[in-house]
Amino acid sequence: MSDQVQSRPANVTDEPAPLTKSEKRALAKAAKARAAAAKRRRQALAGAFAGLAVVAVIVVAFVALDDTGKEPADGGLASNPSASAPADPAAPADPAAPPAQPPADAEFPPLPEGADPALGKEPVVTKGEGELAKLTSKTLVQGTGPVVQAGQQITVNYVGVTYADGQEFDSSWKQSRAVPFQIGTGQVIPGWDQGLVGVKVGSRIQLDIPPALAYGENPGNGAPAGALRFVVDVLAAQ
User: Is 87 a residue whose pLDDT tops 90?
Assistant: First the structure.
């Protein structure tokens, strides 16, 4: 059999046929649609990242607020909520704004030299009896140190209970931290300002305080209402 050369028709070429105007418009429209879709995807991703960043900022702010809004373990309810400069270790009656707390004592309790050993043990404080009409001070342990004077910085341990039922609401013993403050200047409730001036260092004093010299009958803000009983150990004065 002889070889036969097949020739392609004269009207067939390798070049593609030119696009018509309608085809060009269709291609341009498709390219534009693809670009718009890509832009929308980029915007959606950017919006998602921005939303995640906002959520992260809110979470961090909430955690920080939760940490700063906590009340310290020592409520310090012997402080005067109306004082302009409350004592450092005693928070005001509003627990949302507690002042800085001192560190726990390295040796607790920090007894003065020659103090009665009874001051080294937390007292048991019971409820009062009858109606309390006026501030009453009772010496449970007589100290031998200098007499406390108004304006001095004194350091105390204390337990506070409600007079009517003996329910404890505050205690420096629970935090192993004696409390320093300035006496007789309104940094603490009037019952303390009046009842601790004139006491000798090293004394343990029971103070029965009527509502008018404590927080009143309806103080709010977590402060105890009604008459109160405190047992206070005076450890230092300067």
Answer: no
